[in-house]
Amino acid sequence: MKDIIGRIQSKLGDRGKDIKEQTNNRVYVSVDRKNIKECAKILFEDMDARYIVASDMENFDSFEILYHFGFDKESAIVSLRVYLDKDNPEIDTLTDIIPGISYIEREMWELLGINFKGHPNMKHFLLGDDWEKGNYPLRKDKYEK
Amino acid sequence: MNLKTKALKKSLWVYHMSGGSCNNCDIEILDCLTPKFDLERFGIVLVGSPRHADVLLCTGIVNKKCVERVKEVYEQTAKPCVVVAIGACACSGGMFRDSYEMGGPLNKIIPVDIYIPGCPPKPEAMIAGIVKVLEKLK
Amino acid sequence: MKNNKKTVIVPIGPYHPLLEEPEFFALYCDGEKIVDVEWQAGYNHRGIEKLSESKHWDQVTFLVERICGICSTSHPFAYCNTIENLIGMTIPERAKYIRSIIGELERIHSHLLWMGLAGHFLGYNTVFMWAWKYREPVLDLFEIISGNRNHYAMFKIGGVRRNIENEDIPKIRKMLAEIKGQLEMLIGAVLDDPVLTARLKNVGVLTKQDIKNFGSVGPVARASGVDVDVRRDEPYAAYPLVEWSVITAKNGDVLDKAVVRLSECLEAVKIITQCLDAIEGKAGEIGEEVRRVPEGEGIGRHEAPRGECFHYIRSDGANSPVRHKIRAPSYTNVPTFKASCIGQTISDVAIILAGVDPCYCCTERVAVYDAGKKKKLYDFQHLVELSKQKTERIRKEI
Predict the structure, then answer these.
(1) How crowded is the C-beta side of C291, counted as CA atoms within 13 Å?
(2) B96 pLDDT exceeds 70?
(3) How many other CB atoms are found less than 10 A from the CB of residue C52?
(4) So what's the pLDDT on residue C8?
(5) Which helix (H) or strand (E) holds A4?
(6) Dihedral (Cα; C330, C335, C339, C343), 10-degree rounding
(7) Chains A & C: contacts with CB separation below 8 Å
(8) Which of A97, B109, C114, C136 gives a 20 to 30 Å CA spacing to C297?
(9) Where are the alpha helices (DSSP H) in chain C?
(10) Which residues of A fall below an 8 Å CB-CB distance to C?
(11) Contact state of A128 with B65 under an 8 Å Cβ cutoff
(12) What is the DSSP secondary structure assignment for residue A120, as one 8-state letter?
């Protein structure tokens, strides 16, 4: 695991912070929202990681996205953690780097309300087209103002 | 010809639809056609169109995306027909009853005649339920 | 939305009864060739990730079982691995073997189910009947071990909920030997058939780059030569304790996908036999008690029959997950339809879709449109019929 952490550290440089193995074989890296495209490209293309999925969640004072990548030869999963503004959660789309990520970005928009700038096909995916606008089911009631 | 006489004169035509399920009930329904259970010996035939159906087999919670479709199928089905709710999800919503995507349970959308509970109900339970339909009609 | 057009539905087989819009897959074609594919999910969406946030940790195991009926043990397996990753614990050895036995039995039943459906799409209804008939003893085995043919509820955090009693093992071995014989016969009959081989070769090819772009996993990836299998890449349960091989192929067509799946059934029998050898006649704990899930986050996965099943959990030390992210393998496999279908002919669509092994319900709602006029041409029933006709043409040529 040290080897993988070392390689990511040197590839990402300043852009990757707090790189550590939190639980067995699970490495988390914090990156800034503005650097996500470059960091994802480095992992997906330069380091030939496997795209797994992205997961999102609402915190008290932010939104958070984790982009999960598989490093199968090292038995590891490396997750890039990004925090977004609570009032205006948006981030660049990664569909030009990882075509398959298009669907999970649509899902993250319709269930949690995160905007993906530049997404080629942002429309409803799981919910019906007649779903109430602004009703994001995965948001927590306890955080509603 | 009403349903009673139809059932006595020819085989029961059954249409299956799912309104958002995990597919286990659907697979068990298909299982009934396989050699081990062999529904056809009771004179039961699965058809591809609700217009020809005497019995509607419905599985799943009926999520919001499927509500209109379920209503349409029911309207298209030749009346009189028997509606069977198969599985805990169709009967009551099961563990999904509090979900934001819940559009059912089935009896909120169309009238249901028979409930076959289970998760999923075994093929024997489903066959027993269908046979009860036949006996009720006699 | 209400649609006033009423198309005539031709009842071709008893399966996949289909109504009009809204579609799950919309295929746009130009003449005989597919030019574009649109995937609209949501017909089985039940809001499980949200429901998970209001369930107790133990209840979540039962909830995730019902994500998919065919791979009903895969999600509890991945979920338990997730919580155990979060806590940083290992489970007792007997529990590891029992988990692998259940996982591999499920692989056999799922691949047999797939073989039956694929046979049906090609016009080989006897393959359908045989495959599903030989699936029954596997379901009977599940009933002996767990009490239910489906939704076995065998998993809990820290181990398994029920033991496989030592006195049941001889009976299980006997049934397994019969299943193995039937599997070998069925696999031989299917792969030796020249019409099937001609029908499936070079159909629905996915390249390594396609697999990478979509993040595909499981037999879909391995058939294209992408050597990824969670059981070997990050060993868990009994997989590092027994001898078995990862099956890969080279061409990435539907034939290779079939070969990979069928060969995996035989590997599964090998794994189960070794696990039974390891636990027979011995005693052992089947679960480690877990009283509390502490604050933290965990990721767990399992190689389901369709590929890597991935769960992420965030906990704040309370009784329920703060966030539970679930990614089923089909989520990354089904979109490959875009790559494997474009440029192919309509008569191959049904089997290409089946090659990806999506959820059965997903295949219900496929419609084909004329790309130029957006006029609807076919529904899935027709696609299956076209596929069967192509098989017949090939049969006459051979």
Answers:
(1) 0
(2) yes
(3) 22
(4) 27
(5) helix A2-12
(6) 110
(7) 91
(8) A97
(9) 48-52, 57-65, 74-87, 93-122, 125-146, 169-191, 194-200, 208-214, 218-222, 230-233, 254-279, 330-333, 337-341, 346-355, 380-397
(10) 22-26, 28, 50-53, 55-57, 66, 68, 70, 72-73, 75-77, 79, 98-101, 103-104, 111, 124-130, 137-138
(11) yes
(12) T
What is the SS3 string spanning chain B? CCHHHHHHHCCEEEEEEECCCCCHHHHHHHHCCCCCCCHHHHCEEECCCHHHCCEEEEECCCEHHHHHHHHHHHHHCCCCCEEEEEHHHHHHCHHHCCCCCECCCHHHCCCCCEEECCCCCCHHHHHHHHHHHHHHHC
Kindly list the partner chains of chain C, i.e. chains with 3 or more CB atom pairs below 8 Å: A, B
* Contact flag B63-C70 (C-beta cutoff 8 Å): no
Cα separation, C178 vs C327, in Å, equals 35
C56 in reach of chain B (CB within 8 A) = no
Question: Which parts of chain C have pLDDT scores under 70?
Answer: 1-23, 359-369, 371-377
C-alpha C9/C-alpha C22 separation (Å) is 15
**Amino acid letter at C226?**
V
**Tens digit of each residue's pLDDT (9 = 90 or more) over C376-385:** 667 777 788 8
- Report whether B94 contacts B60 (CB < 8 A): no
The string of pLDDT tens digits covering residues B12-57 is 888 888 888 888 888 888 888 777 887 777 777 778 778 888 889 9
C228 at the B interface (CB within 8 A)?
no
User: Nearest CA of chain B to the CA of C84: how many Å?
Assistant: 25
Superfamily of domain A2-143 in the CATH hierarchy = NADH:ubiquinone oxidoreductase Nqo5 subunit (3.30.460.80)
Q: Looking at the domain C48-329, which fold is it?
A: Cytochrome-c3 Hydrogenase; chain B (1.10.645)
Residues in B closer than 8 angstroms to A127, CB to CB, are 64-65, 101
Residue C239 tokens, joined: 């997989």
3-state secondary structure (DSSP) of residue A78: strand
Beta-bridge mates of residue A62: A85
Please indicate whether, in this complex, the C-beta atoms of C133 and B31 are within 8 angstroms of each other: no
State which H helix or E strand residue C301 sits in: strand C295-304
Q: Where in chain C is the domain with CATH 1.10.645.10?
A: 48-329
Domains of chain B in sequence order: 13-137 (3.40.50.12280)
Provide the sign of the torsion angle of the four alpha carbons B125, B129, B130, B132, taken in this order.
Answer: positive
Given this model, what pLDDT does residue C364 score?
A: 53
What's the pLDDT score for residue C47?
Answer: 87
Name the token pair of C289: 């008690």
Place of tokens 């017909």: C43
Burial of C131 from C-beta contacts in 10 A (0-12 / 13-18 / 19+): buried
Q: Which chains share 3+ C-beta pairs under 8 angstroms with A?
A: B, C
A98–C213 CB contact, under 8 Å: yes
In this prediction, the residues of chain A whose per-residue pLDDT falls under 70 are 145
Residue the block writes with tokens 């019902």: C66
Q: Which residue of C has its CA nearest to A110?
A: C42
- Residue of C150, C186, C306, C385 to mutate for B, most B C-beta atoms under 10 A: C150
